[in-house]
Design brief:
The protein is α/β, with parallel strands linked by helices. About 35% of the residues lie in helices and about 15% in strands. It has two domains: about 70 residues, no CATH class; about 280 residues, Metallo-beta-lactamase, Chain A. Strands 10-9-8-7-6-5-17 form a seven-stranded mixed beta sheet, with helices on both faces. Strands 11-12-13-14-15-16 form a six-stranded mixed beta sheet, with helices on both faces. The radius of gyration is 25 Å and the shape is globular.
Amino acid sequence: MTPESILHSSRYWHWMKQFGPQTEHLILNENTSTLHNLRSYKIQTQLNLVHPEIFPQLANVQKKEERPEFFGVRGECLLKYQLRPKLEWQRDAVTSNNTEEFVKEAMELPGFVEALENCKLTLKLDGAFTGESKGQYPEVIFLGTGSAVPMKTRNVSSTLVNVSPSHSLLLDCGEGTFGQLHRHYGENVDEVLSKLSAIFVSHIHADHHTGLLNILFERERGLVTCGKPHTPVSVIGPPLLMTWLNQYHNHCQDILHHMNLIPAKYLTDGTEALSLKNKNLLASFLEAYQLEQFQTCLVRHCRNAYACSVVHRSGWKLVYSGDTMPCDALVQMGKDASLLIHEATLEDGLEEEAIEKTHSTTSQAIGVGMKMNANFIMLNHFSQRYAKLPLFSSDFSEKVGISFDHMRINLGNVRTVPKLVNPLKVLFAEDLEELEERREKRELKQMREMEDQPNGSQPVANHKRDLEGASHTMGNKRLKAN
């Protein structure tokens, strides 16, 4: 586990050679290159068949060239060393990105080739299956589209917004965000991190903020690698975030010099309480990103949960809901948004569970977008029960899209997303069937329970209203549990 700089020093090499030729040296350091999360590569390879621009291939793992005098073995995922009957390294279980196998598996699915060809024909007739939208900003890359806990196919919340070729903004930063960035950009991840100057943290739940530490440390390393001077990143979030950061700084390692906090509560409509320092930080941030406005509002989730609105001087407006139930303040802030990214944790029919957990269903999220007259709505933050594809509702339209990890969209190609639904349904048909069966069983159970209710019992509709009223007053005290 020796850093590469020490590993190749003459003193260290001399010490290693003292063990003799029979000793095997396993190297685990920053130069170890190995494939992680094979399922993510498989899903992305198959999605790439549907639309190569919106679903780009993930970066290949590049093994670094070793010096001629190097001796030792670089660690790899699932690499084994056998002690008996023969001493040897075994790589039969080491993961590899076999794209041909993944493509073959998808193409053999019943109806997939036909659905793919029909989709491509439709897009070609519409002029949508071209590379014309490449390079358009803002470019939105979904790094995590699941909720609560990371899974193989959906990591937890994080969205990268490339505002321009030189400036990027991160919307939430759940655990594993850097890993997702590295899988997406590969060897170019340092350059991407060097362009990151602002991070918005919507609220203090682990699936939205615990990846922040690693991003800050890796960003510093990326700046050094790119030969750029170190500058603190502007973090916009709840003031309580500083409690966590201070604890880490005091008990683990220095972190505070990496960032400046701009409290989200001071960016809500009508607030004039910004300190001179925060005013200067905000002005610098807006100028660097060429933004007309960066605004926040409180939403209906836990205490101090925020959504944000980003308005660019060129005219586009991006709104991010964070975690919330349907919220009037969000509707007001997001009026006429070019793009709304709204959480849709649960499927329709689970409204009571959504109220209990202070989240939104798919139709509720779409309804918020319609109320604010959003030009397009991207649904996000799905419960991990919808690991590959959520259930569709009747409210889905040409203005609504479903996000996937590593999906890349911009305002030029976002209208293409709803047209990809048919091949996606075929690709994930088995998962959809299972979800639909589960929904049918739940609805049947609910019908039986209603039939068994005594005449004097409280109607279900009134019960839902009571729950919603209670959640409105108590929701800020709830902890998220999906």
